[in-house]
Amino acid sequence: MHKDIVYSVKSPFRSEMNILGYRFGKGEKSACIVGPTRGNEVQQLYICSQIIKTLSRLEKTGAIVNNNEIMVIPTVNQYSINTEKRFWAMDNTDINRMFPGDEEGETTKRIAAGIFNAVKGFSYGIQFASFHTPGDFIPHVRMMETGYQNTSLANLFGLPYVLTRKPQPIDTGTLNYNWQLNGTNAFSVYTSATDYIDEKSANQAVSSVLRFLTRMGIIKYNCHNGFIATTLEEELLMSIRADVSGIYRRFKEPGEEVTFGDLLAEVVDPIEGEVKSQIIAPSDGIIFFAHGKPLVIENCTVYKLIRRLHE
C-alpha cells in the first residue's frame, strides 16, 4: 500500500486539509473507490476504511493481480465530518454537485477539480454516496442514464437491486455523471444507512466491491456469488408522501413486502399527542426507501415502493 496526498486545501486559520489516496498494486488504473463527499456520511466512511483494511491484507498475500492499480480515497471532506455538517462547513455547498470542478473557482469547485484530476482515467469508478432526503434504502447500485451506463456490469456487484436514473440538471455536477462522460464505468453504491453505522449493510457493501473487483480480474478473492440483481428505473418507483407535518412513527422497513391497505406509518401531533394521519400502502410491493427522521413535514416523501414486486 502506498499513501499519498491527492489534493490539499490551504486554510488561513488552521492546518491544511489533505485528501489522501491509498493505492494498491501497480500498473493500469483499474479501479478507483471514493468515499464521502459530505460530512454526515459516516457509514460510507466506515465502509471505505474496511475496504482499505481488506485490500492491505490482500496485497500482502499477493491477491492483487499484476498490472492493476486500485486507489481508495476514504473521504474528501474531513472539515465537514469534524464539524458534523452535511455540506462544506464554510458556505454550505455540496462538493458532489461541483464536478468536474474549476481550478480557479470557489473552494468546493477547486476541491472537486483536484479530486477529479486524481480519479479520472480509471476503468471503473465506485462512489459511496447518500440520498438528498434523509432515510434508509435497500442496498443497491445506482447509475445515471447517460448513454454510457452498463447495467450488466452493475449486476456483478451481487447486490439485490440495480437502479437507473434519468439525470436531472442537478445531477450533472455529480462525480458519477462526470466519470461516465469521461470514459469511466461509474457506479454509486448505496447501503442502508448514512449518519450511523449499520454493520450488516456495511459488510454487504464491502463484499460487493470485493466481488466486483474479483469478477473484473483485478483481485483474487473467494466470496459468495451474491444476488442476481433486479434492475429498476427510478421514475417507476411509487412515492408515498405525508399529508401533514408532525412526529413520525415508522412501522415498515426497507426490504419489507407490503400489501394494499397495510399501515406504513403514523404522524402524531407534536403538542397534543393525537394521531393526525395514518399512511397506508396504496399498492402491493416492496419498500425500497423509508424516511428516517423523527419529524416529517407535509408533502415530504416518506416511502418509495417497488410496485407489484414480491419477494
TrEMBL record:
Top-rank taxon: Bacteria
GO MF term set: hydrolase activity, acting on ester bonds; metal ion binding
Keyword annotations: Hydrolase, Metal-binding, Zinc
Pfam families, per the entry: AstE_AspA_cat
Annotated Gene3D superfamilies: Zn peptidases
Electron transport in keyword set: no
Cofactor(s) needed by this chain: Zn(2+)
Domain Succinylglutamate desuccinylase/Aspartoacylase catalytic as annotated: residue spans: 30-206
PANTHER family in the cross-refs: BLL3975 PROTEIN
Protein name, UniProt field: Succinylglutamate desuccinylase/Aspartoacylase catalytic domain-containing protein
